[in-house]
Amino acid sequence: MTDHSPPGYRPETRLVHEGILRSEFGETSEALFLTQGHVYASAEECEARFKGESPGFLYARFSNPTVSMFEKRIAAFEGAEAARATASGMAAVTTALMGLLRAGDHVVAARALFGSCRYVIAELLPRFGVASTLVDGTNLAEWRAALRPETKVLFLESPANPTLEVIDIAAVAGIAREVGATLVVDNVFSTPVWQKPLALGADCVVYSATKHIDGQGRCLGGVILGSNEFIQNHVHTLLRQTGPAMSPFNAWVLLKSLETLSLRIERQTATAGRVADAIAGHPKVKRLIYPGRPDHPQADIIARQMSGGSTLIALEIAGEKAGAFRFLNALHLIRISNNLGDAKSLITHPATTTHQRFTPKERLEMGVSEGLVRLSIGLEHEDDLIDDLIEALDRV
User: Fold this and answer.
1) CATH 2.170.130.30 assigned to 261-394
2) Is this prediction's pTM over 0.90?
3) Are 101 and 120 in contact (CB under 8 A)?
4) pLDDT tens across 242-269, in order?
């Protein structure tokens, strides 16, 4: 097979061409290699391959040609030296953290997190002797105050799920460097189109490729990105030995999705901005949070570190849970679903879905009230979405 990676092209071009491995058949579209293992010309070649002395693929749990194409393409667009794909976004988060941490270490994380991320930080890691402290991610003094001599990792989402809280990544990266800690950033809500955490000083970026990278609700996937040294020292062996592997079929689907990622995100973001402006003043909307609006609480940080807004909008609906449910149930075009980043517009009530396992006090600490809903904007016409939302809001 021949590597046809393009040298020096712009990011949008690399989303179409980067990492292609063409077989002797000269296929135009990337090939789907549905194979568990590989064969070797000799026992000596097999030995050299397993020792890492000879390049090539070994076993689908930790290497596959189609998965490799996806890894190279997303790394090129992110601006990372290397990437490793995983079976899901949470597999990416968990693997990145577990690869860095040992018993006796300490993690500091922003309090506003996706429910499963908070579970890993606050409940799973302590089972293995890794302590954790949750802080207000927007308060740099709290990050510094939480540091200990044994702090090894700082973790955050920005914008956060589901509150769209934005954290100063460069500032937190500076705090991490002061104590020799590693900063891991979940970049799902901004996507690699609008934010580059590695360029802002982060050491590792993780994605749920299930969301915008697929963008059409078809398959699960995750990816971990960083320097070659980071991936080799903290990720590669753990993936190889524990097996949270991405399937070749999912990698092929995600490869094809990357070709349209910029187009989809630009269109969805533009629509989200117009939708946010159209409904912000509705009397049944107590509060609207959108990273593209000047009234966002961290608008100054957004201007510095993001080149665009988001496809997500957070709404505080009048009437608490009952009002939020009336709103959701009155929608016709926008569908109730806990997914996001889809071509179809989706909406969810975090307090009873993604964050339902937390106590009311914990949810409020994260900014997840009973009236909060998270709206993911798709590819529909903006006027149809606005009409659907206003009609539903009128019925709250």
Assistant:
1) no
2) yes
3) no
4) 999 999 999 999 999 999 999 999 999 9
Which residue ranges make up each domain of the chain?
Answer: 9-258, 261-394
State the Cα angle at 288 between 282 and 294, rounded to 5°. Answer: 110
Closest Cα partner for 278 from 330, 313, 251, 231? 313
- How far is Cα 189 from Cα 201, in angstroms, rounded to an integer? 18
Q: Distance between CA atoms of 376 and 89, rounded to whole angstroms?
A: 18
Helix (H) / strand (E) containing 21: strand 21-22
Work out the end-to-end distance of the chain between its first and last CA atoms, rounded to an integer number of angstroms: 59
- Residue 8's pLDDT is 78
CA angle 245, 173, 208 (to 5 degrees): 25
261 contacts 76 by C-beta, under 8 angstroms: no
Confidence (pLDDT) at 6: 61
Tokens linked to 88:
């899901």
- Within a 10 A sphere around the Cβ of 19, how many other Cβ atoms? 22
Q: Which residues of the chain have pLDDT under 50?
A: none
